[in-house]
UniProtKB/TrEMBL annotation:
GO biological process: methylation
InterPro entries to which the protein is assigned, alphabetical: Methyltransf_25 (IPR041698), SAM-dependent_MTases_sf (IPR029063)
Name of this chain's protein: Methyltransferase domain-containing protein
Taxon lineage: Bacteria, Bacillati, Bacillota, Bacilli, Bacillales
Protein source organism: Seinonella peptonophila
Residue span, Methyltransferase domain: 49-144
Source domain of life: Bacteria
PANTHER family, per the entry: TRANS-ACONITATE 2-METHYLTRANSFERASE, TRANS-ACONITATE 2-METHYLTRANSFERASE-RELATED
GO molecular function terms listed in the Swiss-Prot or TrEMBL record: methyltransferase activity
Signal peptide annotation: none
């Protein structure tokens, strides 16, 4: 995936609308691990925080509240559609300490030591030129402060999504470390090396479990396909009608393995990455 494809994946009105619709589901799935991410960013009153790949602003809002009215969050995203939603959300929530920028994080051009903290929920794995970008992020963070990020752990630990990508776009899973994608930062050793190469210190990577529950395999698959944005939606749209029907059948069979009589329970795993810059 190159930079332009990244925009193609996320920067559509539809992607942003679907991301908004899935807020409650996201809160249920990621609410607890997001609180850990925010805690580990060690935000203080009056801090200036960078939120990388803000999406529709779920974690932006939490950070904005944590730093108080005199603090500030700069929420950046490569997608104009996502950032438009962040602006609307902040307006409707009466939050005035968030500024937004439509930009690829790799191109962010601000003076050294601009930010007091950085957060990135489920976005770093989509970044091209990761080593250069992590090096730049290190430079623009103040000494003694921290970046806290969540990424997806390995495909096998995430059956809520991995089979879907395996069926729709096998190469997204088979080449996890080679190029940006859902699982490109899923190996702790690889993540550790990337941050080390970029100069980061006190790098800690922790696996955290999540679980989702649905009523049945069929409803999960249909709902997931209909409401997904990003890589899943793009992979789905590339199939013809017959391929889509075959994929649905195959996926329902796969997910029936996780069904018990009353529900479908799907485990998942994320990595919480915490890295600092010495003071
Ligand atoms: C999976 S979404 C996560 C959104 C949000 N952080 C959340 O957790 O709800 C990934 C986001 O990263 C953004 N993104 C991907 N590559 C990016 C890049 N190079 N620079 C800035 N944002 C990027 C996408 O546009 C998308 O909004």
């Amino acid at each position: 995936m190159n930079k332009n494809q990244n925009i193609y994946v996320w920067d559509t009105q539809e992607a942003a609308e679907k991301w908004v619709q899935k807020k409650n589901e996201r809160d249920r799935l990621l609410g607890t691990v997001t609180m850990h991410m925010i805690e580990q960013a060690k935000l203080r009153l009056d801090d200036h925080v960078l939120d990388i790949g803000a999406g529709t602003g779920d974690q932006t809002l939490l950070a904005a509240k944590s730093v108080g009215a005199q603090g500030k969050v700069t929420a950046i995203d490569i997608s104009q559609s996502m950032i438009s939603v962040v602006n609307q959300v902040m307006k409707s929530e009466n939050v005035s300490n968030v500024e937004t920028m439509v930009i690829d994080v790799a191109k962010l051009d601000v003076p050294e030591e601009t930010f007091d903290a950085m957060i990135a929920r489920m976005s770093l794995m989509f970044v091209d030129e990761l080593e250069e970008t992590l090096t730049k992020l290190y430079q623009i963070l103040k000494g003694g402060r921290t970046l806290s990020a969540l990424v997806w752990s390995k495909a096998e630990a995430n059956p809520w999504i991995a089979p879907i990508m395996q069926v729709l776009r096998p190469e997204a899973v088979l080449d996890p470390l080679g190029r940006p994608g859902l699982f490109s930062l899923s190996e702790p050793d690889h993540v550790q090396r990337q941050f080390q190469l970029a100069g980061w210190e006190e790098i800690q990577i922790q696996k955290l479990s999540i679980t989702q529950e649905y009523s049945s395999a069929e409803s999960y698959v249909l709902n997931h396909i209909q409401t997904s944005s990003g890589p899943t939606a793009v992979a789905w749209a590339e199939l013809n009608d017959q391929e889509q029907q075959n994929a649905l059948k195959k996926l329902i069979e796969i997910y029936q393995q996780y069904e018990t009589s009353a529900k479908l329970s799907l485990p998942g795993e994320v990595l919480l990455i915490v890295a600092s810059k010495h003071g």
